[in-house]
Amino acid sequence: MRFRWAEWQLVLPLGMAYAAFFLVPLALLIAVSVFADEKITTLGLATWHKFLGDPFTWKVIFDTVKLGCLTVAATTLIAYPLALVYLGAGPRWQRVILFVVILPLLTSVVVRTFAGIVILGREGVINQTILWLGLSPAPLRLLQTEHGLVIALTQIEMPLLLLPLLSVMSRMDPSLRDASAGLGASKWRTLFRVTLPLSLPGLVAGCMLVFASCTTAFISQFVIGGNRLVYLPLLIWQQSLVVYNWPLASVAALTLLVSVGLGVAAISALGRRSRAYAV
Amino acid sequence: MAARIRARRRRASDLSYSVVIGLLAGIGLLILIGPVVIVLLTSFTQGRSIKFPPAGLSLQWYQLLFDPVRSSQIHRAALNSLEVAVVAMTLSTVLATLASVALARRTGKWARAVDTFFMSPIILPMLAFGLAALMYFTFMGFRPSLALIMVGHIVVVAPFVLRTTSASMSQLDPALLESSASLGAGWFYTFRRVTLPVIAPGIAAGAFLAFVASLDNVPVSLFLAGPRSDMLPIRMWGMMESMLDVRVAAVSGVLIATVLVLMLVMERVVGLTRRLRD
Question: Domain spanning A43-278: which superfamily?
Answer without folding.
Answer: MetI-like (1.10.3720.10)
